[in-house]
Amino acid sequence: MTKIQNFLKGLIKENPVLVLILGTCPTLATTTQILNALGMGVAATVVLLCSNMAISALRNVIPDKVRIPCYIVLIAGFVTAVELLLHAFVPSLYDSLGIYLALIVVNCIILGRAEMYASKNGVIDSAIDGLGMGCGFILALFAMSFIREVFGAGSFCGVEQEKGLRLRRLSVGCHLRETLLHG
Amino acid sequence: MSFKNTVKPILVLTLICLAVALLLAVVNYVASPVIAEATEEAERKARSEALPGATDFTEVDIGYHELHETVIACYKDNSGTGYVFLVKCAGYGGKSNPITMLVGIRDGKIAGIKITDVSGETAGIGDKVKKKDFTSRFTEIDRNGVENVVNVSGATYSSTGVKQGVRDAFTVYWDVAVQE
User: Fold this and answer.
1) Chain A residue with minimal CA distance to B37?
2) Under a CB-based contact definition with an 8 Å cutoff, are residues B129 and B99 in contact?
3) Does A86 lie at the interface with B, CB-CB under 8 angstroms?
4) Contacts of A53 in chain B (CB under 8 A)
5) How many Å apart are CA A7 and CA B95, to the nearest integer?
6) Global pTM?
7) Element (H, E) at A86
8) A183 touches chain B (CB under 8 A)
9) Of A38, A77, B13, B171, which one's alpha carbon is 20 to 30 angstroms from that of B3?
10) What interface predicted TM-score (ipTM) does this complex get?
11) Which residues, in sequence order, are CB contacts of A97 under 8 Å at separation 6+?
12) Mutation target among B20, B34, B40 for the A interface, most CBs of A within 10 A
C-alpha cells in the first residue's frame, strides 16, 4: 500500500478505538472534556510515533523471546519522557491528565501496533502507521468527548453553552455511546 | 548455553534498559529545574490568594508545637503584617486523607482561605468546601467567630474539618507567629 493509504487507514477503516477496539480505557476516562481528550490524544500519538520508530529500528536486533519486555521498556521510557516534558512545559495538561498519562504505557494501541506492525515493517512505514493510528485515536477521542461534553456538561471546550440535553456522563452512558460509534 | 538463545536476549534487554535510562536522565536534567520553578511559583500564587495583597513570603520556623500534625508550615508576608499557614485538617477523608489548605491571617482576622486538596472528600458534595461560596464566609472572621460560620449543607464533616483547621491556624498564629 502507498504511504498515503498507510496513513489514512488509521483514521477510519482501521481506527484503533472504533474498529480495532484498542485503547478503550483511556477513551472512557479522558473524554469528559474535549480539551483533556485532545491532550491525551496528542500525548499518546507522540509516544506511538516514537515507540513505533524505535521498535521498528530495533526489530532485527530484539530476540523474539524478550520482545515484550523490550517493547514495554521502550514504551515506558517514552511515556516517562513525555510526562516530564509536559509537567515542565504544559503543566495544565499534566494536571488534567493525571494518572492517565502514566497509563499510556499500557494503552493497547501502542503495544498493539508495535506487535502488529512496527516489528514487521520499516522505520518510515512504522512512523506513518503510528501517525495515522494516533490521528485516528484523536478523532475517536474528539467524537466521544464532543458528545459527552456538549450533551453531558453543556459546554464546549470549557465554555458554557445553553442548557442542552443532560445525558448521563457516567461510564454506562459512555459505553453505550461508544458501541453506537463502533457500529 | 548458546549465545543466541540465552546470552543475546539478556544482553539486548539490558542494553535497551540502559539506553532508555540514559534518555530519561537527559530529559529529567532538562525538565526538573523548570518543574521546580513552576511548583514554587504555583505555591507562591496560592499563598497570595490566601493573603490578598501579599506577593512575597518568607517561611517562618514555628518549631515543634503541639499542633504540628495539622499546621504544617507558616509563611510571613514580606511586605505586610499577615501570615499564611499551610494546614492539613481531617474532613470526611479523616486524618489519613486530609484537606490541605492555606489560611491567611492578618491582624487577628482571616484574610482568605485557599483550599488546595480535597481528594479525600466526596466528589460533588464534600469538595464544595473548596468553592468561594464557603471559603469567603471566613473573611474578616476572628478566632471566636469560626464557630458561627455556616457549613455547606450536606457536607458537615468536610465543613467542620475546615473550621477546625482554621481554629488550629489561629492557635499557632497567636501562640507562635505573633510572638516573633
Assistant:
1) A88
2) yes
3) no
4) none
5) 53
6) 0.74
7) helix A67-89
8) no
9) A77
10) 0.75
11) A30, A36, A39, A40, A43, A86
12) B20
Residue pointed to by grid coordinates 500534625: B69
Of A22, A55, A47, A51, nearest to A141 by C-alpha is A22
Grid cell for residue B7: 546470552
Kindly report the nearest CA distance between residue A120 and chain B, in angstroms: 18
DSSP tag of B131 = S
A63–B9 CB contact, under 8 Å:
yes
**DSSP summary character for residue B151:** P
Q: Where are the domains of chain B?
A: 50-177
Exposure of A182 in the CB half-sphere (CA atoms within 13 A) = 15
Nearest CB to A84; choose among B5, B12, B31:
B31
Q: Which string of DSSP letters, residue by residue, matches B33-95?
A: HHHHHHHHHHHHHHHHHHSTT---EEEE---S-TTTTTEEEEEEETTSS-EEEEEEEEETTEE
